[in-house]
Amino acid sequence: MTMADPTAHRETDAPYLAPRAVDDPATCTFNHTIDLPGHGTVTGAWDLRPALDDYLGHVAVAGKRVLDFGATSGFLGFAMEARGAEVVSYDFAGEACWEMVPYPDFERAVIAPEIRNHLRRFENAYWYSHAALGSRARRAGGSLYEVPEAIDPVDVAVLGNALARLRDPFRALHGALRLTRETVVVTEMLPKSLQFLRYLPRSLGLPLFLLPRSDQRIRFDAWWTIAPTTMQELLAILGFGESAVTYHRQSLLGQKRLCYTVVARRTEPTNPEL
């Protein structure tokens, strides 16, 4: 396949965001540790560098147009660009933000600006890295449930720990995969208490575990742990019927965490009516 020319669109064209000059790393939050020319190693919560191939399911991205869904500070997209991909990074923008669990004492007017500031710091880190790397990746943003069709089709969609904080992960999958022609890579973390899910065959059910608890009220808690077999079935429903699961450990805040990666291939065309 011949890669599309990234210069065919101006970077300020909708739906893409105009690049911003970010010079101060103190205004940034890096979700992933990244090595930046002229700046050295910048530390983030996750360090995927030692086992990046496992995280990406060993999918070859050279010459492919790739959607980095839930890009945060951009590490995965920049890493795939370095491997020869044309990358579209996508994440929250504007009024769209994480959906907090609506406990009775939930104060949206207080919490939403705090969340948007956190997302803005991720975006700052993205543009800071983008400039340091001389990247040609483009970034778009909005609701994670409504990836705009103006992005145009991609060959590969990568969703790296992007679904657990969404109240409706299936809706988000559908929105991203309707634009995906070939392959989807979904990586999620398995909490220690639910690591038995890796041994659960599809014939025994397709669990989706709700994480919030009424007696804990963690403000920035995730919504779900999705069993690997459930993820395979969700992808099959959306036309990606051939899939495989692998397991690996990644570094989060200095501790090794078990993750799974599902790589699925499109076997049925997108339904244009949905």
TrEMBL record:
This is Methyltransferase type 11. It comes from the Bacteria. InterPro entries: SAM-dependent_MTases_sf. It comes from Methylobacterium frigidaeris.
